[in-house]
Write a structure and sequence with these properties.
The chain is of the alpha+beta class and 774 residues long. The protein contains 10 helices and 38 strands. The longest helix has 25 residues, at 646-670. The chain starts with 7 loop residues before the first strand and ends in a 13-residue tail after the last strand. This is Post-GPI attachment to proteins factor 6. Belongs to the TMEM8 family. It comes from Larimichthys crocea.
Length: 774
């Protein structure tokens, strides 16, 4: 898959020897490159070019090189390319300063500005980067709303990121309670790692027995101790050591993870030897609530049936819910004195792409006490980071009345739970932040939305808190925590559409807004279009197609029945295509949008094709053959590339070439300009050509998203008007090889038949048409 997308991965092994008491350290360098991608002006997240890099464990330095190259040689001025970098999930950006939906929490990521004229590049270095996936997003400045026709030359810029990594392959490991002798120099820090097991509540790393290489300072450490990695949004814990030693402590360290330890020397040209040791403490291990030793998959299957029946509104399940809640309470009672935290098992269900739902096994109600916290665990896979993590916490006040001084405090945190909850304790771990909420009698429901969450295990801790030391009679309450991953925030609302995007094999979703609405969830109405403006745009774009009615009438009166049917087809589908193409709520679709668009584009180009061929005045047999053959080719090209430039220019140029050829042939044969009448040129051909030229200029150069509804309506009117001017006059009665052979149909609805003798029709002589004005 990587090779199919032209991904290049180069591996260069460089061996470096560093003097240390514990042996020699080997470093390797890995180089990865992504193919160049064309940048777009930012209008929504789909205009962003997203790339994903993986940084392995024990990486010492990561170096990105970003290159931007201009695609054309003509002067485009200077543009600024914005580059966003984030660890663990795609960057959440807001270049246009729009408003985020309510209860949507996000933190800004690192952004770089790269000015570009013809070719520019910049580098970004990061020491001790966090291992895992890193995401790089790039885009041009905000879209100015100009509609660029596909195929015309425009200013294009191509973005290519590259990453080089230097990592140690034999990093020493700190064991619990075991001293390790290390040496640190200014240019060669000591790099170590330690494993933090699950349920660890605290961690400490101590440095002792410092000794300078030359022995001048004796026991002066002059070291810098760092715990953790650099993730741009969160940095390591740093301690400056002095004297004979120092230590760094972490409360709530990340569970089941490798932690980096870096010790640097502050002394110039001096090597410091020291001993380092780590210790962790397990405060308490949670006891499971809800699943007994004899439980099996049948209970999980029963819970799934329970969920489906609840969605269907089965009244029998309500009784089961109450019984399940009472069972959970009964299970909690004997554990109140023996456990420090209760872990509720959670069912993980992948519903669809970027759609994951978590449900407590014993039902939606979760019991919470004031003595010890309740813990729920939500593992989030990598493929779910492209969506939105939603938490909806609801207080169940059916049987219990919660006082005004009591509330249920909740903390949603990644990597490690916060097991001590109160109003003064922040919802934050040692290296990462959390998201705290609470519900009470006055606010029984709260919501949190996290776009593009990190791929890790998320923990939700719940506990009942009171202002006094005793909560009184209310020591056990029930809440309903709903945690799920959705593609977009509330499906982008009324004025937005949730679209699934892809960067190679990685899938993510974003909202594309319409009718002037903006924001991450299309909830910012600062530039929204009013309903009156939406209705006006719909009326103009649809009723402007009625300007084809004069062209249809003129074509019928001049006996161009085939051409009139093409104009009727174009008018019909263009009207309903634009009625369905509107961005707001004033929309009407009589069939699928794609079918309407295809018929509109096909009819528009065929109208131009048949009109120019009709002006050529060729014999009917050749004309209708070209009609059919050209329409088939146009239909094929529409299927291949509907908005391609040559889909319009190709038929137009071919038809003009045929028309000019026939006109020149007739002019040479008659030795007279064709058409011969100056009135035809002044009153018909020149005005029709001007209408067509003005319409094409408006269509190509003047249309923007702001003026589209009236400039495109004017394009409809001009095209229909030029057809009225350019259609040739009615031909004189003469026998042709066309569809009228053998009979004629006059305006008084009479018909006549010419006699046939021995299989031949008696003919009448007729003069050549001189293309005069009648």
């Amino acid at each position: 898959m990587a090779f199919s997308f032209l991904r290049a991965l180069l591996l260069v092994v460089l061996t470096a020897r560093a003097s240390a008491d514990d042996g020699q350290v080997t470093f390797v360098s890995e180089l990865s490159s992504k193919p160049a991608q064309k940048l777009s002006k930012y209008g929504w997240y789909g205009n962003v070019r997203l790339q994903r890099f993986n940084i392995p464990e024990d990486s010492a330095v990561a170096r990105w090189m970003f290159s931007v190259t201009k695609g054309h040689n003509f002067n485009c001025g200077q543009h600024n390319v914005t580059i966003h970098i984030r660890w663990g999930a795609p960057p959440v950006i807001n270049p246009i300063g729009s408003t985020f939906p309510n209860s949507t929490l996000w933190s800004p990521c690192l952004s770089l500005i790269l000015p570009v004229t013809s070719h520019s590049s910049t580098t970004f270095n990061l020491s001790d980067p966090a291992p895992g996936d890193w995401y790089v997003a790039a885009h041009l400045p905000e879209d100015d709303g100009r509609i660029e026709q596909k195929g015309f030359p425009s200013c294009s810029y191509f973005f290519q990121p590259q990453l080089s990594i230097r990592r140690a392959v034999d990093t020493p490991t700190l064991q619990q309670g075991t001293f390790l002798q290390q040496t640190a120099a200014p240019d060669q820090p000591a790099r170590l790692k330690l494993y933090v097991p699950e349920f660890a509540s605290s961690l400490s790393v101590s440095v002792a027995n410092c000794l300078s290489g030359d022995g001048v300072d004796g026991g002066n450490c002059s070291l810098v101790l760092r715990l953790g990695s650099v993730s741009l949004q969160h940095g390591p814990v740093t301690v400056n050591c002095s004297g004979t030693g120092c230590s760094a402590s972490l409360s709530n360290p990340p569970w089941d993870a490798w932690l980096r330890v870096v010790v640097e020397s502050n002394q110039d040209n001096r090597t410091v030897t020291f001993s380092v040791v780590s210790n962790y403490t397990v405060g308490c291990k949670p006891k499971s609530v809800g699943l007994r030793a004899d439980d099996d998959l049948n209970k999980l299957r029963g819970n799934s049936s329970y969920i489906n029946s609840t969605l269907a509104g089965n009244s029998t399940v309500v009784t089961d819910t109450v019984a399940s809640s009472k069972e959970s309470v009964s299970l909690l009672t004997p554990l109140l004195a023996s456990a420090c935290v209760w872990s509720i098992p959670v069912l993980h269900e992948e519903v669809d792409v970027l759609s994951v739902r978590f449900t407590p096994v014993n039902g939606p109600n979760v019991s919470v006490t004031d003595t010890n916290p309740t813990l729920l665990t939500y593992p989030l896979p990598t493929q779910a980071t492209g969506g939105t993590l939603n938490l909806q916490l609801t207080l169940n006040t059916t049987n219990i009345t919660l006082g005004n001084s009591s509330s249920v405090v909740a903390c949603l945190s990644p990597w490690v739970p916060v097991l001590e909850l109160n109003h003064s304790q922040p919802c934050r771990t040692a290296l990462f932040g959390g998201y705290g909420v609470h519900v009470n009698a006055s606010v029984p429901k709260t919501v949190i939305r996290l776009p593009f969450p990190h791929s890790t295990t998320w923990y939700l801790t719940l506990q009942l808190t009171c202002n006094g030391s005793d909560c009184g009679n209310t020591s056990l309450v029930s809440v309903v925590p709903e945690v799920f991953v959705s593609a977009c925030v509330e499906d982008c609302g009324t004025y937005g559409e949730c679209r699934l995007l892809r960067s190679y094999s990685y899938l993510y979703a974003a909202c594309v807004c319409k009718a002037g609405w903006n924001g991450w969830g299309c909830t910012d109405d600062s530039t929204a279009q009013s309903y009156r403006r939406q209705l006006t745009a719909t009326m103009l774009l649809t009723f402007s197609n009625l300007s084809f009615l004069p062209a249809i009438v003129v074509a019928i009166r001049r006996w161009y029945i085939t051409e009139a049917s093409v104009y009727l087809f174009t008018m019909f589908f263009s009207t309903f295509y634009h009625a369905c193409d509107q961005p707001g709520i004033a929309v009407m679709c009589i069939m699928e949008y794609d079918a309407l668009q295809y018929c509109d584009f096909l009819g528009s180009i065929c109208s131009i094709w048949v009109t120019i061929l009709c002006m050529a005045r060729i014999r009917d047999t050749f004309k209708y053959t070209l009609f059919m053959f050209g329409t088939l080719l146009i239909a094929m090209s529409m299927q291949l590339d509907r908005k391609g430039l040559w889909n319009l220019l190709g038929p137009v140029l071919c038809a003009i070439l045929i028309m000019v050829t026939t006109w020149v042939y007739r002019g040479v044969r008659r030795r007279h300009c064709y058409p011969p009448s100056w009135k035809r040129w002044v009153f018909y051909l020149i005005p029709g050509a001007l209408c067509a030229l003005i319409g094409v200029c408006l269509y190509i150069f003047a249309e923007t998203e702001g003026n589209y509804y009236y400039t495109h309506s004017l394009w409809h009117i001009l095209v229909a008007t030029c057809v009225v001017f350019l259609l040739p006059p009615k031909e004189k009665e003469r026998e042709t090889e066309g569809w009228s052979r053998g009979w004629s149909w006059s305006w008084n609805w009479s018909w006549s038949w010419r006699p046939r003798v021995c299989g031949y029709t008696l003919c009448q002589s007729s003069k050549d048409e001189l293309y005069t004005v009648t």
